[in-house]
Every structure is written in structure tokens, then in C-alpha cells.
Amino acid sequence: MSIHEECGVFGVISPRNCDIASVVYYGLYALQHRGQESCGIVVNDDGVFASHKDLGLVGEVFSPNILSSLPSGKIAVGHVRYGTTGGNNRNNCQPIEINHQKGRMAIAHNGNLSNAVELRNALELSGAIFHTTSDTETIAYIVTKERLTSGSIEEAVSRAMNTLDGAYSLVLMSPQKLICARDPYGFRPLCYGKTEDNMYVVASESAALKAIGAEFIRDVLPGEILVFDGETVVSHKEHCGEKFKRLCSFEYIYFARPDSEIDGVSVHAARARAGEILARYHPADADIVIGVPDSGLDAALGYSKASGIPYTIGLIKNKYIGRTFILPGQSGRLDRVKIKLSAIEENVRGKRVVLVDDSIVRGTTSGRIVKLLREAGAKEIHMRISAPPFLHPCYYGTDIDSEEHLIACKHTVNEIAEIIGADTLGYLPVEELKSMIGSCDYCSACFDGKYPTAVPSDTRRDRFEQKLSSKIKDKNKQR
Question: Three-class SS of residue 158?
Fold first, then answer.
């Protein structure tokens, strides 16, 4: 099973021509934490599309010269992409652009379809030729197919949603319109706002709206389609209420920025509540509480508040290094940890430390962090995790690998503590996710195996690549 991706989408429409690429650029910068493999921008200059996409961070891909080469326009869409195993190539850069009989379209997508393989197989058997391994191209094909017999692009998107299953937050651009849509489960966040000069902006997180000076209006409802023409906003709700809402709980635990608000819930407040819950369920006799930057800091503050143990800074993060969790390959993870974090010896030496982090997946990163603190002189390390143990893979766009690689599937809590070198270990109880988030409208399948959709029978992202890998393995065996 491949590691799936998490991404960030951004779209803007202006009533007048402007340097719209720069607006998307700053929006993508604010969403950089959601994807560090690749990024792209497509600008609509009166129906003529111009784009630039490449591997790398937003600041690397869009140099001043590249950014200035993009034309002014009224509509633009952008995307940052999360790293995948076997999917790190330019073909998978988004937004994807399509030319079809009724015009042009650019589409950016966050999430994973649970019926992607079935849909792709059907399309290929009908003659479709794919250039990428992403679900986004499948969505683009289906929307395009529906557009040929639909009266409008929004009708085509609505018809396509009858076929799609799983997680998808979409931002789509036609020659005249900006459209966004959120799957009926609402797995992935999506919101929109408006600037003082009457630009409408759509983004994965509210923090990206703030970054370009837009006022948050509201979240896109699960199943809702919004159509922007530069002057008005029209909502289509024919798919709303088709499913029970199941926002990914890991958005609050890890993915989203703490200054974002998702579906009316502050990410910072949710993480702080997780820390308070941990202090209640897993108290520790300790001198200080520290958090692992960045997503463990808010929970550490909550733990300190509830326990009365002083909070301090124990680990410093190199701000120029990306998040290890979204880097493909084990060697990459370990190399980045070595240069990403350093301990403040003065604060931890001789201390009994409560160390709060957001998750343990394979255990290698956690072990390295514990070792850093030991080397800095920490007397005891009591690790607390603001998520339940990962026990099942995710099919909706979170980097939760197969059960084979999940440490909690093979070892008890005490065994994991010993493996990573901690004195004690405590996880957030899965039943307390509702207290953390403040509702029961979330997906926790990676923790409890309760999948909202049918579990895919085939999870391959690129069967051709897998066949090639199998041949190489067979040759190695023969040797």
C-alpha cells in the first residue's frame, strides 16, 4: 500500500483584472504546511490559461521572475501537494488543466477517493489515457465527461459527485467561473471569504484567508457546491445531507495550522483540550512539560494547565526544515530529525520531563526525539500523545501507512515506551476525541477501524509501477 497524500487548495476570483497570481502565491504560502512536495498556479486571463507547476516549496518554485511572468487575470487556482511514496514526479503536480470540446478547465483537489481504482479502470476501458497517478485526474475526466452533456460546469460537477466516493475538496476554474465543492462526508476542510476589494477566496483553511486579507465568511458545507462569477455566490445543496458528516479528526490533531478554525472549531483550542484530557488520564510526577514543535505545543500547554506542571520550551525547531511526517522514505525521516530539532539543555538537564507530541506512527521519529532529550540530560521522559494509537490505514488522504508499518499494531503501550526509550507512555483515549473536537461528526477510522465508506479492495496508486517493482524483486531473488 502506498502512502497517501494530503494537500492544500486555493482559489480566487476578482471583479477586475489584477495581479492575481501573487494573491494565490501568498495563499499557498499560508498552506505550505499541508504539502511540501510540489505546487502550482493556473491563471485565467480572459479565458486564456497560463500556469507554472513544479516540484519544491512555494518560495522555490515561484521565483520573482516566474511569478512576474504569469499574466494578470480575474480568476486563478493553486495547489500545494503532500509527498507520496512512488508519486514524487512532475506529472502529479496540480492544478490539472484540461482542454475539452466545451472549453478549458483547471482543477485542484485535496483528499483521496475510496473508489478511485474502480473509476479509473472503467475510464481506461472506455479509452481514457492517464498521465498521472493521482485521483485528481480521475475526477477531471469524470467532470469533463459530464460537462459534454450538461448545461453548465456546476451541473457537471454535481453529476460527477453522484459517482465519486470518499474524500474530495475541490477548487475548479472554468473560463468564466470559480467553483468549489466538498464531498458529502466533509472529510477535508474547505472555506471561503471575501477581501475589502471584493475578491472571493476559497481555501483549505481559514488561516490562508487571513494571509491575503480576506474576511472569513463560512465553511463550505459537506456536499455543497459554490459557484462564483466575480459578482455573486450561488450555493447548490443537492448533495448536502446525503451522508453523515465525517471530518477527518487528524486535521485537528496534526494537519491544520493552530490559527485555523475548521467547521466552527478552533484548532488551537482542540489541541489544548487534548492536552487537558491527557493530563487527566495519564498524570505524571514531573518537573516540566514540553511540546514537540509545532503541533505538540498546544497540547503541551493544555497538559500544563490541567496538571499544574510548569510549561517550558525544551525543543527548538529549525524553521527551514519541512515536517518529517510528510517526507517519503524512512531514511529521509531520520536524516531530517537530526537537523530539525535540538534540545535546550539548560531547561531539561536533570529534569523529569513530560514530552507531548501529536502522534506515533512507526516510532522511529519518537525514539530519536527521546534520545535527544536523554543526551541533553533529561532525568525522566514521560511521553504523552494527543492522538489515539494508529491501528488502521486511512483511505481518505492522511499519511497513515498499512498496518504492517504501524507500531501500535505490533506492540503494547509499555512495549512501545521501551522501544522509543520513554519511561512511560500515554495516548489520548479514542472515546475522548468527541471531547477534544466538541462533536461526534468526525472520522476516526485510522484509530478504530470504523470506515464511513466501503473499504477499497484495491489500494494501488500506480499498478504499472508496482508491476515493475515486482519484476525487479523477482530478478533479485533469482540472483
Answer: helix
